[in-house]
Amino acid sequence: MDAVVVLVLGLSCLLFLSFWRQSSQRGNLPPGPTPLPIIGNILQIDIKNITKSLTNLSKVHGPVFTLYLGMKPTVVLHGYEAVKEALVDLGEDFAGRGSIPIFEKINKGLGVIFSSGNSWKEIRRFSLMTLRNLGMGKRSIESRVQEEARHLAEELRKTRGSPCDPTFILTYAPSNVICSIIFQHRFDYNDPIFLTIIKIMSENVKILSSPWMQVYNIFPALIDYLPGSHNTVIKNVDYVKNYVVEKIKEHQESLDVNNPRDFIDCFLIKMEKENNSEILKFTHENLAITVSDLFGAGTETTSTTLKYALLLLMKHPEVVAKVQEEIDRVIGRHRSPCMQDRSHMPYTDAVLHEIQRYIDLIPINLPHAVTRDVKFRNYTIPKGTNILISLTSVLHDNKEFLRPETFDPGHFLDDNGKFKKSDYFMPFSAGKRICVGEALARMELFLFLTTILQNFNLKSVVDPKNLDITPVVNGLTSVPPSFQLCFIPV
């Protein structure tokens, strides 16, 4: 009986503490659904499709509202106006990185993606400058992407028009481009280390987008010691990080400070210059995590977009026909596509934009946090509060895009067939934390897809009308369903 009394008292105290914390944190936060003790609003959210839940809640509570994911308040921004106001107009105030427990455990606040504060600013500034100096967005990197596009075409020819799952083949090319920038090295497509890294990065994307990981990130203290796929993520990240550490050691042994070869060399040189600083931001551990960040982000986002693109194009053969007609007219069949071609190919440009808009690769931006107490639309958001940004609500806005749930390149074409820009096009996010590799990703998508369609027709193994284009998971990333296709040489 005594044990029962203690248990009841303990639970009562926990519930009281939960009520007290939630009411004390509410302050002048935006309104939102009433949270339950401890679990907050978790029962009002479909973990399998958080984006849809946020859209439904915004219809009731408006474009700015507060959710409790567990006992912590999170402010949600829904729709172009709210997102632009926060990320662009008040960019500095919303530039913090929100709490993501799995990445806090893995990256320890280091690197370029999951860090905050002055350390993040310096590492991001250095990374952007170094990537540009190494050719990102310039002709020098374009030639590397063109070379990799040729390797990709050769690899696709080896399938001899037989049905294949393109997942890994499409990952090799963007991964090798980022490898050439970071390590000054490209892998052979049959390299066992390369294949292992590609496999585990692909596995991590699926796990991180799964419902289990959404639960883990809401209740890390309860789940941290339980078995589950979050442990697989950590093991996989350690594998990649250990490989990166070995490459850093090799670079140190052959470093020439007057002739940096790649990103790692540039970082090591910066480390030497900063050696006398009281607060060291450029350390071996930060280098390993920054390189892992760039390696992972530079591989998976582009390869997943390419895979989804092929699925959509098979579903819409009439779009493929128009793109190939433009390729024949502007590029022909006997030279590699180049970035100058893009300005003469408005329909292809519109197709690329529509692919990114439609697939909505990152439905909910990685959480931000406010860097100070912020007055936002008559509400007060306390410093450190997590901010969830629905990129879906921008990319699928029916005021900007006539049929947002339909794949239609016409969304980016004017009445004269010219390419039409849109401020609502935010697949890379916006503001201070816009994707570091945006310029490279846009170049890769154009050169890889035009090279594929220049050399191959896409043949579905089922009737295109029966192709399922619904993502299998829709958490961190929208992952397309598995499919097979035949690359038929033109």
TrEMBL record:
Q: Which family does it belong to?
A: Belongs to the cytochrome P450 family.
- A single GO BP: xenobiotic metabolic process
- Species in which this protein is naturally found: Heterocephalus glaber (Naked mole rat)
Instruction: Tell me the classification of the organism that encodes this protein.
Output: Eukaryota, Metazoa, Chordata, Craniata, Vertebrata
UniProt protein name: unspecific monooxygenase
Entry's transmembrane regions: none
Please list which residues make up the signal peptide. 1-25
GO CC terms: endoplasmic reticulum membrane
* Main location as per UniProt: endoplasmic reticulum
Describe its membrane topology.
Peripheral membrane protein
What cofactor does this chain's UniProt record say it requires? heme
